[in-house]
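Team,

Forwarding the record for the chain on the shared tracking sheet. I've put the sequence and predicted structure together so nobody has to dig through attachments.
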Amino acid sequence: MTTLPAPERGTPGGSSGAPPAPPDAGGGRSPEPPVRVGRIEFVNCFPLYHHFERELAGRGLTARVVEGYPAELNRMLVEGAIDVALPSSIAFARDVDELTLLPSVSISSFGAVDSIQLFTRTPLAQVRRVALTEKSATSICLLKVLCREWGIAPEFAPRRGPLSEVLEDFDALLLIGDEALHLLRVEAYPYHHDLGAEWKKVTGLPMVYAVCAARREFVAARPAAAAAVGAALLASRDDCAARPEATAADAAQVYDFSQAYLLDYFDKLKFGFAADYLAGLREFYRRAAAIGELERVPDLAAATFAGPVEGAGTAGAGRDLPGDSRSRHGSIQGGEVEE
């Protein structure tokens, strides 16, 4: 499949309702240039970005938001076309020398995630050929890790052509994002396996699909801007968490899903990055290295942003809180934003 450049969504004042950049009050000091921020164009990112530009403008910065599939944004971040994004967690590990982890934000699940599915025509033990999405890196690596746990060694090939051809030529199909959600809804395959749920069965840990990362050059030059981006993403998440029904209704106006469906889906997603998320990420990296998908397990402590992170140590940073498991793992519902 030919990868096209990710389209730009524009500067503040777009769909998130960001106000104009504040006027220069520094006596002639030039305003900082916009931060180039990548946004995965799937519904799972909606709570992080719904109020992001407004929140960033409130911190004195503007953004140029660039949309694309995870694999596209991974490439753009490493190449320097954007400054900050939520790269696939495995892509971050592979390019850790170029990137810095902003430690408060992730896209994770503790169990089922719905939007990362292996659809199969046969029981798992009989799967011989798997068609892979080209939109993601983490899901492919996670599937290979799980295949080892399942005791199968299928042939993997990129998905090409319409779904009808995939059904004829492959025993299974790996899909992510909105495409996985739609296929799950129509029940085109007799079996489906949620990779988040399967990871939890194997490890008992959360699965981190994407992390928040910035280019090292950007963090060195503009550490306050890097911190502000992480804080604005969390603030958007917290605003959405405080109004889950309204958030789901707003998302339903953009994506082809109902409010009720999205309310349940958003509750499965976790956007914080507490200690158990870090443990899950390290275990994923360890298993990826064991099957040859990583040359080495990255030193996450050395790769983490050392500057001040606004909201760190608060509910907004996604730390563990008393309450049910949903609150502890930072879902969009479950009372996380209240002490």
